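ok so i was messing around last nite and threw this chain in just to see what happens. nothing serious, just curious
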Amino acid sequence: MASFSCKIMALALVLSLVSSSAELQKLEHSIKNDGSLSLLVIGDWGRKGEFNQTQVATQMGRIGEELDIDFVVSTGDNFYDSGLTGVDDKAFEESFTNVYTAKSLQKQWYSVLGNHDYRGDVLAQLSPVLRELDNKWLCLRSFILNAEIVDFFFVDTTPFVDHYWNNPESHHYDWREVAPRQTYVSNLLKDLDSALKESRATWKVVVGHHTIRSVSIHRDTKELLSSLLPILKAHGVDLYVNGHDHCLEHISSNDSPIQYLTSGGGSKSWRGVFNSNADKLRFFYDGQGFMSLQLTKTMAQVVFYDAFGSVLHKWSVTKELHSSM
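result:
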């Protein structure tokens, strides 16, 4: 932990490691002087600029400047098709540094791993060496990001999914530091449950790669429905943000305040698949794009954009402030 903190300080990131009673690492990011926070969310992007990745990145830069974003969240599948081969893999620069060049995007990126990332050298993506190559990069398995009015809980969802373990087909998955699976997943759920219980933030946002609810090709992830979702509902989570399906979606839970937000349109999209869903579908777009999230103490606003930066869908919700007696 000490060496990690030194590395962060040496790179002068706008975050700091703080203690947490749970096992999840906890980071902090400051909010604006007016008490607001703005960020972009992108997923399933790393294709060396191809499949409109560069086009999406350009519009992210424009919207990022308009919103004066504080940071970017990546929902995983950061490097296709099979993650990175090592810390010296040129795909890191070709798919990340050389693509997201806009001034507004030179903020901290907080990233989780996707299933395609697990097909490569996972430890390379997590390595501080990459932060030396590009200091806006930060990828961890699972962690908490506190930004005063909001707590983000980043969850490593790939180990939850049965068929990556039981039927990997021709793919190799890098399970170092994960196996044995049952212990890893059990501890992660326990730590997440404790962290959510302890959170006093106005807003609670959980970020994972895999869908919980989706009408696209991957549909709902049954393992997350059974193991992760009950914890989110029990602790009043406001938003679950994911990638995995290469599209943009907004689905509202029928029996809780949770909004399921898919931002997986960072590059290759247009699957041409639609499936019905048990919850309320508010928006679905099968193409490329990204999402913004703006927060204050009393308001959250979500906006989805296409690859041309056009607004496709807006949604907002408010919370009342309760004064302490």
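not much to say yet. The longest strand covers residues 299-306.
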